[in-house]
Amino acid sequence: MRAFVGLPLPEPWIDPLLRAQSRLPGGRPVPEDDLHLTLAFLDDQAEDKLEALHDLLDARRDRAAVLEPLAFAVFGAGRARLVALDLRATPDLSALRDGVRNAVRRAGIDLPRERFRPHVTLLRYPASAPPEGDRLMRALTGLGAPAITPAPAPAVAMWTSRLTPSGPIYDQVATYPLVAA
């Protein structure tokens, strides 16, 4: 089963992000209920490993990290693959990610080493229909700095993901509370 662990967004962030999505050209907007920050992409895993991870995450009592928005950004060298809200990689957020990734490894799931660039994907662009670069950059400039107040992550969650021709379909299967900082 394809899965990932991440952070649902603070409720006050949702409307500003939906407004930003609506002002960007083309692409497939990420549905409101699917907006999140990925901490560990698990790829396809056996159910027993996901159950072991669930037990480990359920036993943890991680401190909440404050999510701090930085800027809207385009991902993709030479061709936009997605537009995202970049977040500051604070020590608390990095520690929360490291703790989750350690639990993933203890559950027997291999993870690649990768640089952490915390972000929330807003729009995805298919390879067959990349956006017009200048038009997208003008739209991003028009958005300006994100008018979103830093806020604590409400929880850690595990999602499953099914790939479809019209994009991934996510189902949140478990939520793990965070301890107030």
Key traits:
181 residues, alpha+beta, 4-stranded antiparallel β-sheet, 4 helices, 29% helix
Please outline the helices and strands:
Blueprint: E1 2-8, H1 11-22, E2 28-29, E3 36-44, H2 47-59, E4 66-67, E5 69-75, E6 82-87, H3 91-106, E7 119-124, H4 133-143, E8 151-152, E9 155-162, E10 169-177
Antiparallel strand pairs: 1-3, 1-9, 2-7, 4-8, 5-6, 6-7, 9-10
The total beta strand count reads: 10
Percent range for helical residues? 25-40%
Shape category: globular
Mean pLDDT: 93
What's the short version?
The protein is of the alpha+beta class and 181 residues long. The protein is 29% helix and 32% strand. Strands 3-1-9-10 form a four-stranded antiparallel β-sheet. It has a four-stranded antiparallel β-sheet with strand order 2-7-6-5, covered by helices on one side. A two-stranded antiparallel ribbon has the order 4-8.
Would you write up a description of this structure?
This protein is of the alpha+beta class and 181 residues long. It is built from four helices and ten strands. The strands form three sheets. It has a four-stranded antiparallel sheet. The chain has a four-stranded antiparallel sheet with strand order 2-7-6-5, with helices on one face. It is globular. The termini are far apart.
